[in-house]
Amino acid sequence: MKIAIIYHSGFGHTKMVAERIAEGARKVVDDVILLTSKMAIQHPHLLIESDTLVFGSPTYFGNVSAEFKLFMESTGSAWANQHWKDKLAAGFTNSSSINGDKLNTLTNLSIFAAQHGMLWIPLGIMPQYDSAGKQLSEPNGMASYLGLMTLSSNSHEEFYDPADLHTAELFGQRIATLTQQLKADSKSNTENFTFLTAKQ
Ligand SMILES: Cc1cc2nc3c(=O)[nH]c(=O)nc-3n(C[C@H](O)[C@H](O)[C@H](O)COP(=O)(O)O)c2cc1C
Fold this sequence. Notes:
GO terms for molecular function: electron transfer activity; FMN binding; NAD(P)H dehydrogenase (quinone) activity. Helix content is about 45%, strand content about 15%. By secondary structure, it is an alpha/beta fold. Strands 1, 2, 3, 4, 5 and 6 form a 6-stranded parallel beta sheet that branches.
């Protein structure tokens, strides 16, 4: 079972998020690899070998960064051959404005996964509220649903709310748990099919 996290990070923040997602995923699955988008272009077989691909880009001008887009557009052959079909996919983005049009980046990542025939894992972590109805900062303080959003400083290597990194870890754990479940289900489906065909 293998999970690949592919990211670009101009100033290091998205990389920190990628590392925390990996930390969470490794609680469930041993083989979790981190690849910059440049490395992913150079080693496409690592993506074909993986069961789950997690895509991460900073939000630059309301979209994925140019460097991440370069990776996306390098995957024409994987798309034409449907190499990633029915793999699991998930996405995350970091930026320095509370909103900053992060949703558009996640939307683009999910469309990218859909064009590859992949199955998209949404964040799946409910935002929490205190007894007065005020939203708490953890988990999912950004109240995102399609994927993980984090909020970092623009210039310093820090997050306005370090709890975002805990949410990243939870997301990694969820992605790995679902990867494990899907693999177990496909194994038992294959076994059932073999049993049925053997009986005929
Ligand atoms: C070219 C450029 C465009 C940016 N556009 C946005 C934006 O649309 N929304 C936003 O919230 N932040 C924007 N930012 C700020 C970045 O999201 C922020 O610097 C973030 O920390 C980048 O993550 P990274 O350290 O992984 O590169 C932009 C930064 C750059 C360099």
